[in-house]
Amino acid sequence: xxxxxxxYHSANGDRLTWICSGYKPPNLHKWGPGVRDxxxxxxxxxxxxxLETRNATYTLKAGDSFxxxxxxxxxxxxxxxxxxxxxxxxxxxxxxxxxxxxTELNLQHxxxxxxxxxxxxxFHISQNMASKPYEHIRTEAKxxxxxxxxxxxxxxxxxxxxxxxxxxAKETIHNNYWKASLTVSDIVSIVKIERSYLFRxxxxxxxxxxxxxxxxxxxxxxxxxxxxxxLSIKTIAFSVGYKDQxxxxxxxxxxxxxxxxxxxxxxxxxxxxxx
Length: 275
Description:
Layout: E1 17-24, E2 31-34, E3 39-46, E4 48-53, E5 56-61, E6 65-68, E7 74-78, E8 85-92, H1 94-100, E9 111-112, H2 133-153, H3 165-176, H4 184-191, H5 195-206, H6 210-228, H7 233-239, H8 245-256, H9 260-274
Antiparallel strand pairs: 1-8, 2-7, 3-6, 3-8, 4-5, 4-7, 6-9
Helix pairs in contact: 3-4, 3-6, 6-8, 6-9
Protein name: AraC family transcriptional regulator
Organism: Paenibacillus septentrionalis
Keywords: DNA-binding, Transcription, Transcription regulation
C-alpha cells in the first residue's frame, strides 16, 4: 500500500482529518529523533522494532501498535535480526484528541499490545487521491472505523456517569413530536426505565409530566410555524403531530389563550406595526 494524499480537506481545523496512509516492508528504515505536527498511528504486521519517546523505550512485535503524538520527540527503528513490517496512517484535528482519549493510547503510554484481531486491513484507508467530496467522506469514515476498533479493544477506563434519562426523553420528544402516533409509552420504551421512575425524574427536573412536555413542545413548534410560514392551519396541525385540525385548535387555545387563526393574525399585526 503506497502513501496516498488527498487534495480535499475540511476547512474546520477541529474536525478529524485523514492525511495519508502507507505500508513499510521489512527493512532497516528508521525515523528520528524528530517531531511531527500530526498524529501517526502504526500497526506492526510482523517482525520487531524499537520506539524511543519521552525518556522511555518500548520493544514492539507483531500485533502491537504505537502512536506518534504532535510535537512529541520520537525515534523508532527496526530490530536488526527481525526487522518489522508495519502499516500506518496519519491524521490531525482537535477531534482526534477526543477520540484517542477514549483509548489507552496517551503521551505517557503511546503503545498498545497484542491486538485481538488483525488490524492491518483497517489501515487501507484510501484507494485514491480522495479529491472529490464523497471520496473524502468515505476516507474519513474509514479512519473513524479504524479508531473505533482501538476504542473497542483498548478502551480507557472511565468513570461511569448516571444515565441522563430526562435528557433522553426530551430528545426523543424533540425528534419525534411530529408523529401523531407518538405516545408516552413509546417514550418510556425508548428511554428503557420503569415508567413511574421516569415520571418522577421528569417532574422533578422539568416541573411537568412527560405528556405535558410533549404537548407544550408541539404547541411551541406550532407557534413557530404560524409565525414564520404561510402554511395552512391544517398543514401545521399535521406537522406537529395532530391529524385532527379541530383538536389541535382546542389544545392550542388551552395553552396560549388564542386559536391558531387568532395567533397568526396577532403576529401578522405585530409585524405590520413594527414596519
